[in-house]
Amino acid sequence: MFFVAMAFSATLTLLALRPGHLLVRVLAAVWCTSVAAHAFTCVRRERTLRMDGRCIVVDGIPGEVVDGSFVAPWLTIVYWRPLGARFTRTLLVLPDMLDPEPFRALRVILRWEGKIRG
Predict the structure, then answer these.
(1) Which of 62, 83, 87, 78 shows the shortest CA–CA distance to 118?
(2) pLDDT tens digits along 19-55
(3) 3-state DSSP call for residue 105?
(4) pLDDT of residue 29
(5) pTM higher than 0.70 for the full model?
(6) 11 or 3: which leads in pLDDT
(7) Angle at 57 (CA atoms; ends 78, 103), nearest 5 degrees
(8) SS (H, E, C) 64-75
(9) CA gap 54, 71 in Å, rounded
(10) Beta strand pairing call for 89-93 and 116-117
(11) End-to-end CA distance of the chain
């Protein structure tokens, strides 16, 4: 949350110091504020994840793991597509987001699935 706040304040500072039309800068500041508000809500939201082989359920939405997931001891990136959806979504999982055993199990499942990079 600290990094979102720092990026938001730095962007507003640059907008204030940049020359140009006042209306354009105000509209850019409003847009930046709405993006920062969305980022704050995303950072604070808790996510639920349940995996069973290729099937993955994120926040109650069933889907499947797709090619491109990344597994490392310090970071796991899960690419998944909800059932019936067109676009792939990304879920970042850091070690401190889960207890050690579920984090290890997630990494093992993704490695055995064989759809990972790295």
Answers:
(1) 78
(2) 889 999 999 999 999 999 988 887 777 777 777 666 7
(3) helix
(4) 92
(5) no
(6) 11
(7) 50
(8) EECCCEEEECCE
(9) 15
(10) unpaired
(11) 28
Q: Assign 55 to helix, strand or coil.
A: strand
Q: How far apart are CA 2 and CA 63, in angstroms?
A: 32
Tokens of residue 42, six digits = 């995303």
Buried b (16+ CB within 10 A) or exposed e, 5-33: eeebeebbeebeeeeeeeeebeebeeebe
78-112 tens-digit pLDDT:
888 888 888 988 888 888 777 888 888 778 877 77
Q: Are 93 and 78 in contact (CB under 8 A)?
A: yes
Inter-residue contact 113 to 54 (CB < 8 Å): yes
